[in-house]
Write a structure and sequence with these properties.
single chain, 392 residues, alpha+beta, Butyryl-Coa Dehydrogenase, subunit A, domain 1, Butyryl-CoA Dehydrogenase, subunit A, domain 2, Butyryl-CoA Dehydrogenase, subunit A, domain 3, 3 domains, five-stranded antiparallel sheet, four-stranded mixed sheet, 12 helices, 11 strands, 49% helix
Length: 392
């Protein structure tokens, strides 16, 4: 594991980071040919998809082992994509590997694992609060051997150029809230499925993999064989992928923090405020550096401990820790990025470093997968229940 991680870090430093300036300056689709060349090089070096099992051409790493890799890949905006370990494909691969039919694995999982196609996951709807994942209006009506899907989704990350989406749709509106929805594979070229737009995020629409799509489903017909798992199991499957997915995200955020920390320290050590006086001599900057180091280290240990708990006892048993790492690491990420931008001054507002790009795109860390406030309240309620407090 240590040798592989060293090889991955070397590739990131030597091959990925030098390409960042182009990534920040050009649409993703224009840079994609160069990225595909680097992905081929990753494969050649035997570093491809370290999270996937070996039978799918991956590295076979455990959740905790991949957590270290995810942090290394997170130090550049293109790291996870180059290694075919990017969301939402990573979660869709795990879902299909665990619950997909033989035909689904052959048609969708295998080419996804090889990096020949991309995918997306359509769950969030603009009309309803994302903090309530069981509140959905998209429906999948059974018609013989088909489902007919109607609905409206947005922030379907990486929909632009994807080969298929996994859509969460209500199949049993009268069932219990957590048993109403089903996950169904829908090819992106299906009749009635429209990519309305790439949503502008803080002024940037993005393109290709680096985008968030708005989708409309109007009478989209797909075979029942495209259903993943049992009818009504959609929420349970979403929760199953949530635990490992949270580890992936949080360690990616820690990788971003580590890179921002390095850039902040380099700037503080070299930038002169006046002849002979460096920025790093200022007490405020020193405090930012010390606080950032402590928070990053604490976040890393918390996430790794959570990963070990998930592996030992399952995601449900670790649900409080999964919520804790979500809001804690997202907060650390925002604070570290803000300090790094402030340390760089006007330079921090430009795309001459990746800081401003991360500042724009990772502000959502405190919103997606449930707002921080929801997770804090849920954890607090369960803690207080142990002290005898009953909910009204």
């Amino acid at each position: 594991m240590s040798a592989r991680l060293s090889d991955i870090r070397s590739f990131i430093d030597e091959r990925a980071i030098p390409l960042e300036r182009e990534f920040l300056a050009r649409p993703f689709v224009e840079l994609e040919p160069k990225l595909q060349q680097l992905r081929a090089e990753v494969k050649k070096r035997g570093l491809w998809a370290p999270h996937l099992p070996t039978d799918l051409g991956g590295g076979g790493l455990s959740l905790t082992e991949f957590a270290h890799v995810s942090a290394a890949l997170g130090e550049t905006p293109i790291g996870h994509y180059l290694f075919n370990a990017q969301a939402p494909d990573i979660g869709n691969c795990e879902l299909l590997h665990a619950h997909g039919s033989a035909e689904q694995k052959k048609t969708w999982l295998e080419p996804l694992a090889r990096g020949e196609i991309r995918s997306c996951f359509a769950m969030t709807e603009p009309e309803f609060a994302g903090s309530n994942p069981v509140w959905l209006a998209t429906t999948a009506r059974r018609d013989g051997d088909d489902y007919v899907i109607d609905g409206h989704k947005w922030f379907t990350s990486s929909a632009d150029g994807a080969a298929f989406t996994i859509v969460m749709a209500v199949t049993a509106p009268d069932a219990k809230p957590h048993e109403r929805a089903t996950q169904i594979i829908v090819p992106m070229d299906a009749s009635g499925l429209e990519l309305v737009r790439n949503i502008s995020v803080m002024g940037e629409k993005g393109s290709g993999y680096s985008s968030h799509g708005e989708l409309r489903f109007t009478g989209v017909r797909v075979p029942v064989a495209n259903r993943i798992g049992a009818e009504g199991a959609g929420f349970a499957l979403a929760q199953e992928r949530l635990g490992p997915g949270r580890i992936h995200h949080c360690m990616r955020w820690i990788g971003i923090c580590e890179r921002a920390f390095k850039l902040m320290c380099e700037r503080a050590a070299t930038r002169e405020l006046s002849p002979g006086h460096k920025l790093g001599e200022q007490q405020a900057v020193q405090h930012w550096i010390a606080e950032s180091r402590a928070e990053i280290d604490a976040a890393r240990l918390l996430v790794l401990d959570t990963a070990q708990q998930i592996e030992a006892n399952g995601a449900h048993a670790a649900r409080d820790r999964i919520s804790l790492i979500k809001f804690y690491v997202a907060g650390v990420l925002q604070r570290v990025l803000d300090r790094a931008v402030q340390t760089h001054g006007a330079l921090g507002m430009t795309d001459d470093t990746p800081l401003a790009w991360w500042y724009r795109h990772e502000r959502g860390a405190r919103i997606y997968d449930g707002p921080d406030e929801v997770h804090k309240s849920a954890v607090a309620r369960r803690i207080l229940k142990g002290f005898g407090l009953k909910e009204s």
